[in-house]
Specification:
alpha+beta, 13 helices, binds adenosine-5'-diphosphate
């Protein structure tokens, strides 16, 4: 191999090496124009790239002028329409030789004169059949005859330059995409941290993926909880035309498939590198969705914890109020009764003693309920079932509750004959007493409260009916939850508004205790709204043959 040929091959290999490297594109192109000039003995060489719209030539690398000139030169793209030589090369995709630049009609005479150009070789930079720019090799002052070898060398250099450009574009685009994705994920992360709409962020990210790959459109579909149907959480671009190439990427979550990312492009299927990018995007989308879900469930948990905390706090303040009020009454009445010297009129004395009695009952009921609640929650909760006669049970409970409101008409309606159940007398009496005192409390006024017992086949049903405000239908079940009170706590603003603020005070424990006791007896308790307003509470227990 001759020395010049070896040198020639070395230089080409050198170009190939840095064309494939991840050097910055301007640097690669600079080295290429320098080598192109050296290999063809030219005075100047330059590379021009077509802009995206293919209307302008962007001056991209220049060898043969000083750096100040080169910097300035790079700032002035040329309209393709005014560059006949470039136009011809780009349109034909063929290498073109201009032997005499001063005479050739295709050259720009001002430029030729400025640079003293004599002979020019123009090689198209082509990639996958598409011309993306040109390589100019110029001899100045002296005419030069480009040889076949020169043309071939310049073509090889141009091919390497095209590869370098494509690499750099892919690399740059991948980096830009990565940057954009990174940025949008940071936004998404920030947005998620403040609970903002995750689907808007996914939509933004999908839009980026569509733009970066030149897709016509895309969609992110998530699986419903049934794992069969899907719904679109984000869409970008336009809907796919019939028969258009589509690519799908699974969103594989930790617990299985979350959904799919799909993109479509009429211009042709996605290349391997684009698919790799989209798969990475699917991965990001998946983690955004998983984070959002995790965040939502954490929020939910936090809300519950806050609610529980608030219920506890409300409970504590309520309980001290509930304990203090009857105590204050007892204290007030007894202090008056004990005050010397004048004795009170017998009628007033009786009223005061009744007041003390009723406040003490209230206190006792409260303490009973508190003790029951804590007992119900400990392992110490047991029932001692005995055969109980319902009439006695009801009367005991009703007279205990009646102390709260001596004036009130409580109508007890029991069937002829005896009804028996098996249960714990104290606990079942507490259930009926709680229901009757609620009726007196939540249905104030003079309307009677009805207490009935009836045999229902092999069951006995006890019911307490009032004519109060009734219970919102969405609370009929929840009133049996611990601490639940209609119109209190989060989510009850509406019912609170409906009922006004003058709700009787309470702890939200009574019905919870009732349900626990009834369930421990194998029975059922529920509430309904009466057809004429007011509420009806039913307790159903297994009947037992009389003894
Ligand atoms: P408390 O009466 O101490 O609030 P309960 O567990 O006995 O606790 O009752 C829970 C809630 O159910 C009450 O706060 C009230 O909103 C509702 N409620 C209970 N009984 C009635 C009734 N007879 N009429 C209307 N609402 C009722």
């Amino acid at each position: 191999m001759s020395e010049p040929t070896r040198r020639h091959d070395e230089v080409l290999a050198d170009i190939a090496r840095f064309a494939g490297s991840s050097l910055e594109l301007p640097e690669v192109l600079e080295r290429i124009v320098e080598r192109a000039a050296a290999l063809t003995g030219a005075d100047r060489a330059s590379i021009w790239l077509l802009d995206r719209g293919e209307h302008r030539l962007l001056p991209s690398a220049l060898f043969g002028m000083d750096s100040a000139f080169t910097d300035e030169w790079k700032r002035h793209p040329l309209p393709l329409a005014e560059e006949r030589l470039s136009q011809q090369v780009i349109a034909s995709g063929l290498t073109t030789v201009v032997e005499d630049a001063t005479a050739d009609p295709r050259t720009d005479k001002a430029s030729v004169e400025f640079f003293s150009d004599q002979s020019i070789l123009v090689v198209p930079l082509a990639r996958r059949g598409r011309v993306i720019g040109t390589l100019f090799v110029n001899h100045v002052r002296q005419r030069y005859h480009f040889t076949e070898a020169d043309i071939e060398t310049a073509s090889t250099v141009a091919a390497q330059a095209a590869v370098a450009i494509e690499n750099a574009q892919l690399y740059g685009e991948a980096r830009r995409l990565a940057d954009q994705l990174h940025r949008s994920f940071r936004h998404a992360g920030e947005a998620l941290a403040t609970g903002a709409d995750v689907s808007a962020n996914l939509e933004h990210m999908l839009q980026l993926a569509v733009e970066t790959t030149g897709a016509d459109g895309g969609a992110l579909e998530l699986l419903e909880e049934d794992h069969r149907t899907t719904y679109a959480i984000a869409q970008a671009g336009h809907a796919p035309d019939e028969g258009v190439a589509r690519s799908q990427f699974p969103l594989q979550g930790g617990d299985g498939l979350l959904g799919t990312l799909e993109l479509w492009r009429a211009a042709g299927p996605f290349e391997d590198d684009e698919r790799a990018l989209l798969a990475a995007f699917a991965g990001h989308a998946r983690s955004a969705i998983e984070h959002a879900r995790l965040y939502a469930s954490l929020q939910e948990e936090r809300k519950r914890a806050l609610q529980a905390e608030r219920s506890q706090a409300e409970f504590s303040s309520m309980i001290s109020h509930e304990l203090r009020t009857p105590l204050a009454l007892i204290k007030g009445y007894s202090a008056t009764l004990l005050r010397p010297p004048a004795p009170l009129a017998p009628e007033r004395t009786r009223r005061f003693i009744e007041g003390i009695d009723s406040a003490a009952t209230r206190l006792q009921r409260l303490i009973d309920n508190l003790l029951s609640a804590s007992r119900l929650e400990s392992d110490m909760f047991t029932i001692s079932p005995q055969p109980l006669e319902v009439r006695q049970l009801m009367q005991r409970a009703v007279s205990a509750a009646a102390v709260l409101d001596h004036e009130r008409d409580i109508r007890v309606n029991l069937p002829e004959g005896e009804l028996w159940v098996l249960g714990d007398a104290d606990q079942l009496a507490q259930v009926v007493e709680n229901l009757v005192s609620n009726a007196l409390k939540y249905a104030p006024g003079n309307d009677p409260v009805y207490v009935t017992a009836a045999s229902e086949g092999r069951r006995v049903r006890l019911s307490v009916t009032d004519t109060g405000q009734g219970i919102p239908s969405d609370a009929l079940e929840r009133i049996f939850e611990k601490f639940f009170r209609v119109g209190e706590g989060a989510g009850h603003e509406e019912t609170a508004g409906r009922l006004g603020t003058a709700q009787p005070r309470g702890l939200g424990l009574g019905l919870y205790i009732c349900r626990r006791i009834v369930q421990a007896h194998g029975g059922r308790i529920w509430a309904e709204n009466g057809s004429a307003g007011g509420s009806v509470f039913h307790v159903e227990l297994a009947a037992r043959a009389g003894t």
